Amino acid sequence: MAYVISDDCTACGTCIGECPSEAISEGNPYKIDPDACIDCGACADVCPVEAISPA
Ligand code: SF4
Ligand code: SF4
């Protein structure tokens, strides 16, 4: 399991610095590498448009 980013992402960049495992990469939408994500939820907590959720 890993968190996923939906098309609601506005590419604001807020989440990327919060990830402890560097699983998030830039793009439109931003993407989470499911093999690197450790399911901590830190990114979801800071997303201003609630675009990140558990898969
Ligand atoms: S849930 Fe945690 S490990 Fe997974 S992408 Fe978000 S911040 Fe990174
Ligand atoms: S914080 Fe939310 S809107 Fe901003 S880049 Fe991350 S997923 Fe996209």
Which stretches of 5+ consecutive residues score pLDDT under 50?
none
Which structural class do you get from the secondary structure elements? mainly beta
Whole-angstrom Rg: 9 Å
**What molecules are bound to this protein?**
iron/sulfur cluster
Number of helices: 1
Number of E-type strands:
4
CATH level 1 class label: Alpha Beta
Going across the biggest sheet, name each strand in turn.
1-4
Number of domains: 1
CATH topology call: Alpha-Beta Plaits
Pattern of helices and strands: EEEHE
- Tell me, rounded to a whole number, the average pLDDT: 97
- Shape descriptor reads globular
Distance between the termini: 6 Å
**CATH architecture title:** 2-Layer Sandwich
Helix content: under 10%
Q: In percent terms, what proportion of residues is strand?
A: 15-25%
